[in-house]
Amino acid sequence: MKVSASVRNKVEERAKKLCEYCQSPREFSSDPFSVEHIFPISKGGTEGLENLALACQGCNGHKSTKTEAFDPISQTTAAFYNPRKDYWNEHFVWSEDFTEIIGKTAKGRATILVFILNRQRVMNLRRILVLAGEHPPN
Fold first, then answer.
1. Tally: H helices and E strands in the chain
2. Is residue 1 scored above 90 in pLDDT?
3. 3 Cβ neighbours under 8 A, 6+ residues apart
4. How far is CA 100 from CA 11, 18, 74, in A?
5. Angle at Cα 23 formed by Cα 20 and Cα 24, nearest 5°?
6. In the 8-state DSSP scheme, what is residue 3?
């Protein structure tokens, strides 16, 4: 999808220039971030701002057009975390050293599993950003 500069700016500002899933800062990424559809167009999602999120290439690529996944702890299928409807802190918590995202709910755990929010390179970046005083995000 080609988004206008105006829409991209609104999405980036709302997200504070962080991936709305793994919380990685755009300014430290070697790849551009995407404006992605939270609920895919192919499954009836809209082009409206309420269905758009800022995502790093890793999260966007792993999510693709999926909308839910099985949570092995609750033994249920859960919809993914939706940054327009859900509060990040209700579904996720940082590990003690702030390098790993831990799921607090079925929705959080399903999102972590499919998006692979704790990819090794992202965890390495978090480790460096913690030392630089740039992580976790406010």
1. 5, 6
2. no
3. 11, 35, 52
4. 25, 16, 21
5. 115
6. P
Nearest-angstrom CA–CA distance, 28 and 84: 24
- Own/partner contacts of 92-101, CB < 8 Å, gap of 24 or more, are 94/136, 97/127, 97/130, 98/126, 98/130, 98/135, 98/136, 99/123, 99/126, 99/127, 99/130, 101/22, 101/23
Give yes or no for a contact between 11 and 20, defined as CB atoms under 8 angstroms apart: no
Helices (H), the chain: 5-14, 57-63, 88-91, 106-115, 120-131
Q: Which two tokens stand for residue 11?
A: 């999405």
β-pair partners for 117: none
pLDDT at 88 over 70: yes
d(CA 68, CA 75): 13
pTM, two decimals, is 0.95
